[in-house]
């Protein structure tokens, strides 16, 4: 029996949301990414968070900045930080999982 969480079957876990954001920012490196662009990426992919999208993105960015994977360059603007190779593989896997959940559920952020 698959493990059920409080997030439901088609809502990505916070770790998957963080991975999606981190991967999105690193895909656009060395360019800066705004929070508005991240919201658009969530909506375009169809990923829902089960809560307030802006707050979930803010929480994820705070975590990623504290771990150096994303760098805050100004209010609402971020760029790629450093990710160890092994961690980068896990980030890609989790980002794909989050995107696939969005496709299945047809969420609109």
Structure description:
Helix 1 packs across helix 3. The N terminus is likely disordered. Strand 2 and strand 3 form a beta hairpin. The chain has a single domain, classed as Arc Repressor Mutant, subunit A (Orthogonal Bundle), CATH 1.10.10. The longest helix has 21 residues. A 3-stranded antiparallel beta sheet has the order 1-3-2. With 109 residues, it is mainly α. The radius of gyration is 13 Å and the shape is globular.
- What percent of the residues sit in helical stretches (DSSP H or I)? 55-70%
**CATH fold topology:** Arc Repressor Mutant, subunit A
Number of domains: 1
Rounded Rg: 13 Å
* Spatial sequence of strands, sheet with the most strands: 1-3-2
First-residue to last-residue Cα separation: 29 Å
Q: SS-based structural class?
A: mainly alpha
- Given as residue ranges, the uncertain stretches (5+ residues, pLDDT < 50) are 1-5
Choose one word for the global shape: globular
Please report the number of helical segments: 4
Quaternary state of this entry equals single chain
Keywords for this entry:
109 residues, mainly alpha, Arc Repressor Mutant, subunit A, three-stranded antiparallel sheet, 3 strands, 10% strand, globular, disordered N terminus
